[in-house]
Amino acid sequence: MKKSLFLVLVSAVALSLATGCGEDNTSSPSPTPQARVLVVHASPNAPGVDLLVDNQKVNQQPLNFPQNTGYLSVNAGTRNVKVNVAGTTTTVINADLPLEGNRNYSVFAIDSVSKISALVTNDDLTAPATGKAHVRFIHLSPNAPAVDVSVVGQAAGQGLFTNRTFNKTITATQQAFTPVDAGTVNLEVRVAGTTTVALNLPNVRLDAGKIYTVFAKGFLGGEGAQALGAEIILHNP
Questions:
Q1: CB of 46 within 8 A of CB of 113?
Q2: Going by DSSP bridges, is the β-strand pair 77-85/91-99 parallel, antiparallel, or unpaired?
Q3: Assigned architecture for domain 124-237
Q4: Considering the entire predicted model, what is its pTM?
Q5: With contact defined as beta carbons under 8 Å apart, do 178 and 134 qualify?
Q6: Per-residue pLDDT tens digits for 23-81
Q7: Could you tell me which of 177, 159, 229 has the C-alpha nearest to residue 201?
Q8: Which CATH number fits domain 32-123: 3.30.930.10, 3.40.50.300, 2.60.40.1110, 3.40.640.10?
């Protein structure tokens, strides 16, 4: 009798453990794939803005020209992105963006405020080779002519980037990053095909392993904060 009772108890404990193990092995839901989005205020005469993703505000302070948000993680899929005049419900950009998981994107608010629109790039953040940096140039000065970006001393029509016009749209080639030797370089933004310098960019430091976007900003003939210039984004601090 005692032996039978002992066997019953052992069987009950074994069944309980087996059931418990089955519950512990229940798989948890897979995490939602994420994309990363960097937003840049590149409209020279637009006011500070708020950024909303699926109607949720994501910036604490107004984003002013020519600032950027850094990369924000959002759920992959088609996301609605709105750019509002800061502190208001006035929407100046309303776009549905298809975002793939584990991909990086930059969204530039471009052009003058009366024509403001969004320019979206795919950002390939593959690490540069040893001793190299990755750089791309985007022309975002609405009234400036086509330009070349050249190292000081290069001949007319030569350079890192040639015959770049205002990027109302962007091609796959233009949004790709170019490998360059790391170091400090003196650059000139010239009227395309000439040695006429529109903008000097002295002592531009390009660190090995880093990835940069250089964009032309402001207006040709602009003054103060709206003057023609260049801004550098570091994609992988």
A1: yes
A2: antiparallel
A3: Sandwich (2.60)
A4: 0.86
A5: yes
A6: 455 566 778 899 999 999 999 999 999 999 999 999 999 999 999 999 999 999 999 99
A7: 229
A8: 2.60.40.1110
